Amino acid sequence: MNAKHSTLIGKLSLLVVAMFAFGYALVPLYDVFCEITGINGKTASEPVSAEAAIVDTSREITIEFIARPNQQMPWIFKPEVRRMRVHPGEIHVMNYLAENPTGQAIVGQAVPSVSPGQAALFFHKIECFCFTQQYLAGGNDMLMPLQFYVDPALPSQFSTITLSYTLYDVTSQWQPGQQNDSAKEFGE
Amino acid sequence: MSTVTTADHHDAHHDHKPTGIKRWLFTTNHKDIGSLYLLFALAMFFLGGAMAMVIRLELFQPGMQFVEPQFFNQMTTMHGLIMVFGAVMPAFTGLANWMIPMMIGAPDMALPRMNNWSFWILPFAFLILIISMFLPGGGPDFGWTFYAPLSTTYSNDSTALFVFAIHIMGISSIMGAINVIVTIVNMRAPGMTWMKLPLFVWTWLITAFLLIMVMPVLAGLVTMVLTDKYFATSFFDAAGGGDPVLFQHIFWFFGHPEVYIMILPAFGIISAIVPTFARKKLFGYASMVYATASIAILSFLVWAHHMFTTGMPVYATLFFMYTTMLIAVPTGVKVFNWVATMWRGAMTFEVPMMFALAFIVLFTIGGLSGVMLAIAPVDFQYHDTYFVVAHFHYVLVSGAVFSLVAAAYYWLPKWTGHMYDEKLGQLHFWCSVISVNLLFFPMHFVGLAGMPRRIPDYALQFADFNAFISVGGFLFGLSQLIFVWVLVKCIRGGEKAPAKPWEGAEGLEWEVPSPAPYHTFDTPPQVK
Lengths: 188, 528
What we know:
The complex is a heterodimer of chains A (about 190) and B (about 525). Chain A is of the alpha+beta class and about 190 residues long. Chain A has helices at about 5-35, 180-185; strands at about 60-70, 75-80, 85, 90-100, 105-115, 125-130, 135, 140-150, 160-170. Chain B folds into 2 domains: about 35-255, Up-down Bundle (Cytochrome C Oxidase, Chain A); about 265-515, Up-down Bundle (Cytochrome C Oxidase, Chain A).
């Protein structure tokens, strides 16, 4: 094979490898893109510090809460109230009720989604049960707290924010004793 | 003069090739490999077509008559996969193998051994895919787009076979593409400058780059599906921090350039046939080259128009809507150039020209429904209906497939040394062009009325249209048997074809005798 061919084949093969890598790179790129722009309705996976923000009493935002166990998840999972009205900047606590009606212990992981997606950047969680995996023995129930505030910088076109949680059964991925570490991994 | 005689002797020596099956298994000759690709594609076309017949049989009447819904889903999935990866893509690769070296005055493809490999792994890929249908639980049934979680959480173990089959097809395509690029870049005859290249060569060069850019992404995507399914990687599983919408983004990043992979070489074929039978030079050669390149570049910026209903923000929707509509501009340039080539030309209407003319008209109809689909607000209505099915069948069947049939008729005399039967060819054309419209045109109407795609049953009000569509489908399927008849007849004999059977044809491939000798252009021609 002549040298002219070899050089060109080398370059083209490099392009093939680079494009294969690019396919995988799209995964973190997608997450970063969504996090920066907030267009996917994903909220931050880590708590924000509870700095006292200035409360904007001039307007009220309606927060709607949706909670739903995934099809394979046998827990009963619902918010204490369906909606509340808050001033931007005010810190609120919302409890979710979880009940494990089965005989076995099950570990759950809640995955949040905010709608409209662009509002996700302005919905801050100080503490959330969704940051960690939740262990619940068979037949037990518990209250899972969420502490949040709405950023006063929320653009004025948003008057309602819907926060939805889907709860997944992640018992197979549960590592006892490493709850916090693993929770970070699954925090999204 | 002694050099000439040794060269001749050398030629004769080369013509001693193994006989029987060994000739085809071990061949490194571009013409042999081209024929293998074309015959394989024809076989796959009939296999995929048979599956389409099952689909149309079930949809002939409302209610479930012949097959189970799960089998119906396997049919839609396999029909798509086989037609895209088994029929259209290998057929274009076959044409590239046969024609590109002869068009640029090269003795063979640059990498003949790799060429052999890239063909011979293909039948095994499809064997794996087809075997998966006979395993317990059946074959892939998640649509050719294999959206997660259908292909991850809800699929059966045949998915692993599907993934490996796609891997092998991808490797085959990538090797073929590298071969095409190296051949065109390094092996052009002296004087064959870039702007003298026949458009079929240009369009294939650009297609090969598209293949190299997107097939690895597809390979990565099926690997992610595999690891999500068997190794809990959660790329597309929300419970593990992934996102199913990400699947669609990666798939269509591959998928949209893929549709141009299936149409750009078709543009090259039409750009060869129309000037021949209009007996005029192609109008706007340079603009054709630039239009092809523009389409290829734009194809990387439009993928999310397949995903308008996933809930994108308005500005992203607008971006993808405008870039998509922008593609209509270079495509319009091409259609304009073909029409301008025919303007005041001395036209005759042999079978290749008839198929090329049908291509121009019907592809444009498919292009127009594409522009309709690009309008985001109306796409919310059209999404996942038969309107989409009508659109992509107009561009792929009466577009890509018609161009392939036109190419076959156009170059058959060169391949076989015989003229095909013109009467039978015309019969094939008229049967095809009438039935293809009976088949796909009413799909626009049922789609606009809301009939969803990929569902084995439908509401009663769609019954008449669907019966009509099915009859069109059966007729189109039967019409293709005429094509096989023409092919067999032409391969076995017929009127002797001269080196240049078409009066207006131009290009190096017409300077070698018909049938083209086993080795052509061992001494490169001088292109003026």
